[in-house]
Write a structure and sequence with these properties.
binds adenosine monophosphate; 303 residues; 10 helices; alpha/beta; 7-stranded mixed sheet; binds manganese (II) ion; globular
């Protein structure tokens, strides 16, 4: 496993391309079918889109087919649920080969855990007044390979227990709320291993969302690097304040992590996650897309 490109190496990149390296389709908890997502991204001016559904790659084939029609570059990806020292984390695998057995076995196990968690959530939510909770969430998740909190959130809205998705999370689905059920996800070491086995690049998703102390976040970056992780989302649709971006840029530089950016798009109705609409990446960072946008002559698979 050779590392070909190094921080600071002079690779000419086309700065005018629009990268959105984090998005969801109906294959997980997004609202659009994979093809519709790709079509929307193309219309929004995205040149390179990563489809990163939660714990599944089921949408990639359809997304790739539409991307060919639209002339958009589709990067196969996944967003994997991790438990790190009791903390839930999301790790993105970018430019993965979905046909990798060890990756698929790991994702299948996570989907099983999701099902068991959904049963526990449903029992709790029924006590809190949601009728036929599991069947309802399963209906919301129709066509999806996973069942997640977003599906319960939609059912809570549909049955009129809350006005919108935000309120569903705030009142029922966050940790400590009546519908919350804990779940032990995969280990950070395992997940980075699966992503690397699939030829992909592991990226810490939306680091500011975890509300970790500075010290804990730095510990995460240390562990992540040691285990073979390569990138960090500096610009994310789910944390786009300038302060957050600045402090994540410092983290990326300090730990030699490649900088990624993505909208984390799920739903056209949630306006802060518009596809391709992201604040500018701070200068002086090493963008993760350098790994696959290098001149053809030097092109290698990222490890
Ligand atoms: P899960 O992986 O099933 O535990 O669900 C996590 C997902 O729930 C995230 O990826 C988001 O799609 C969604 N989510 C979490 N918090 C919120 C929120 N406050 N508002 C809307 N969606 C949320
Ligand atoms: Mn989601
Ligand atoms: Mn996430
Ligand atoms: Mn996401």
């Amino acid at each position: 496993m050779t590392e070909v490109y190094h921080a600071g190496s002079a690779t000419a990149l086309d700065d005018s391309l629009v990268y959105d390296l984090h998005s969801h389709s109906r294959a997980s908890d997004g609202l659009l079918e994979p093809a519709a997502l790709v079509e929307r991204a193309a219309r929004a001016g995205v040149d390179c889109l990563a489809l990163t559904d939660h714990d599944t790659t089921a949408g990639i084939e359809a997304a790739e087919a539409e991307a060919r029609r639209q002339g958009l570059r589709l990067l196969p990806g996944v967003e994997i649920s991790v438990t790190w020292h009791g903390q839930l984390l999301h790790i993105l695998g970018l430019a993965i080969d979905p046909a990798t057995a060890v990756l698929q076995a790991g994702l299948a196990d996570l989907r099983e855990r999701r099902l068991r968690r959904a049963e526990a959530m449903a029992r709790r939510l029924e006590r809190a007044g949601l009728e036929d909770a599991l069947a309802g969430a399963a209906r919301q998740a129709e066509g999806s390979a996973i069942i997640g909190r977003a599906h319960f959130a939609r059912e809570l809205v549909e049955q009129g227990l809350v006005r919108d998705i935000q309120a569903a999370f705030r009142r029922y689905l966050r940790r400590g709320k009546p519908g919350y059920a804990a779940c032990e996800w995969a280990g950070l070491d395992e997940v980075i291993g699966w992503i690397r086995a699939a030829g992909g690049v592991a990226v810490i998703a939306h680091p500011a969302r975890y509300r970790l102390s500075r010290q804990r976040l730095r510990q995460l970056c240390t562990d992540f690097r040691e285990l073979g992780g390569r990138g960090i989302e500096v610009v994310s649709g789910s944390h786009a304040t300038n302060d957050e971006i600045r402090s994540l840029a410092v983290l990326a530089r300090d730990f030699g992590l490649l900088a990624s950016q993505g909208s984390d798009f799920h739903d056209p109705a949630l306006s802060w996650t518009a596809l391709g609409r992201l604040p500018r990446m701070p200068l002086g960072l090493d963008p993760v897309w350098r790994l696959w946008e290098a001149p053809a002559a030097g092109r290698r698979q990222a490890v």
